[in-house]
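Tutorial, part two.
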Amino acid sequence: MDQAILEKIYSNQMYLEYLRYHPNWYVILNKNPNAYVDFEKKLKADLKITLSDKIDQLKKQVDFVSSMIKYLNNS
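Running the prediction step on this input gives:
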């Protein structure tokens, strides 16, 4: 595997943990180092750490707080 990719992976604990559960990426990255971008996209989608996931999570929190405020105002 390309040394630069190994450094990127080993510098990020989250990437290492993901690779432990999805070892097929070792083979993919070993054969094609250019697949690193795809690896990052897949990892972020699976772990739900994309921008849209964060926005959805924030929206749910705001909706929850709004519901609690409405409930407390009606009581």
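The two ends are 62 Å apart (CA to CA). In part three we will examine how such features are distributed along the chain.
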